[in-house]
Amino acid sequence: MRSREIRFNAFDMNTVGHIQQGLWTHPRDQSHRYNELQYWTDYARRLEAGLFDGIFFADVVGVNDVYGGSIDAALSGAVQLPVNDPMLLVPAMAAVTQHLSFGITANLTYEPPFLFARRMSTLDHLTGGRIGWNIVTGYLDSAAKAIGLDAVAAHDDRYDLADEYMQLVYRLWEESWDDDAVVFDRARGIYAVPEKVRKIHHRGKQYSLDAIHLCAPSPQRTPVLYQAGSSTRGRQFAATHAECVFVNGQKTEGVKAIVDDIRRQAVGFGRQPDDVKVFVGATIVTGRTQKEAQEKFEDYRRHASSEGALVHAAASLGIDFSKYDLDEPIETGKSSAIVSNVEAMNRTAGPQWTKRKLLEQMVLGSRQAPMVGSAEEIADALVRWTTEAGVDGFNLSRTVVPECFDDIIALVIPILQERGLYKTGYAPGSLREKLFGAPRLPESHVAAGFRKRS
Question: How many structural domains compose the chain?
Fold first, then answer.
């Protein structure tokens, strides 16, 4: 298989403890400054200087309270709590950069499509078309209860709701305004032509809408669409809607099976295989030599929190690990949490996995096994992923920030550039133009059907 040009997103969250739980306690880690705007603007400048494609923001609107049936461990360990809104960071980060993109996780279950569509169009305008949306449906009962529901909806039901939601936002973004609706004619006193702006009328199972989109067409109209579901239903949704798919790192053959299936299904929906780019979650600890990388890893490892990792895993897997002894087989059962995470664990540890097996993987405070090695070894490993699993890039979760990204920029990227596998400068244009060579969704995408109505 051919090698692909590799793409990097920094994977982070507007919080202290994101994926690698406990590393906020490292004396060099700066994530405790997440409330400072300058922290994020410096972060953006650093990533753009290093030619990162973007920063991918995770988000949740609930708390990790499955472990022990309490939020106590999440609070004391800063396990994605407290957590701020990532969208509000984007304008400031965009103002100090020209090319860096921003993938924003936003939960469609708890927000009306009309208001959400306006906010994303606004960000697309303000950034000059550098916005992507990571489409999630939520998995935390605590989030459902926070807005007055009894519990999160069943996994597949959430995707059914999401299909209708996508139809509505596509209509707002693609159908409501013609490309030439805004004329800005000072002489005649006409800003927009009324005949070129239309109301969207919708009466569906979950939503009703009778309104125009409040925003004039933004550079991309529809933001670049990310999606992270790898379950059977999630793959179908991704094949229909997603331009970029985020999958959890595991064995390359497991990821390849997911990638091949999503692209096969995309072709079944009339799309091309290259219409879908795949990013794997990865954690990198590197140095100039293998010895230097190993020493750094051991240093980081001393600060990792096993309990914090279990708190996060309990919420995303829907399993209270506090109820199990170390070697007691864990019953996964039927969960409404992240089904693909349970499936991934079953593939990695077998159907009868235990808390001990899980903890053996959590060497840096997460289920994601880190890549540890010299810059040359890391570059080799990344290339293997692209050739063997067919992925296009990596969402790189932070360990000790900012030095973890400084190491990748200073050590790994130059090696990939020498091999012709990483850009030496940014291509012009919007995020979608950088990824796919065109500013708008292609005619083969389901959203194009709504565009044609206008």
Answer: 1
Q: How many residues does the chain have?
A: 454
Contacts of 87 (CB under 8 A, 6+ apart): 104, 106, 119, 123
d(CA 290, CA 280): 23
pTM of the predicted structure, to 2 decimals: 0.93
Average pLDDT score over residue span 72-97: 98
CATH for 26: 3.20.20.30
Q: Read off the pLDDT band of 339 (50, 70, 90).
A: very low
**Structural tokens at position 11:** 């994977």
Matching residue, tokens 């590799």: 6
Which is more confidently placed, 353 or 205?
205
Cα–Cα distance, 295 to 285 (Å, whole number) = 10
As a whole number of angstroms, the distance between CA 235 and CA 241 comes to: 10
Residue 348: inside a domain, yes or no? no
Q: Which structural domain, as residue segments, surrounds residue 434?
A: 7-303+381-453
* Torsion sign across C-alpha atoms 401, 322, 246, 223: negative
Type of residue at 280: V
Distance between CA atoms of 244 and 154, rounded to whole angstroms?
24
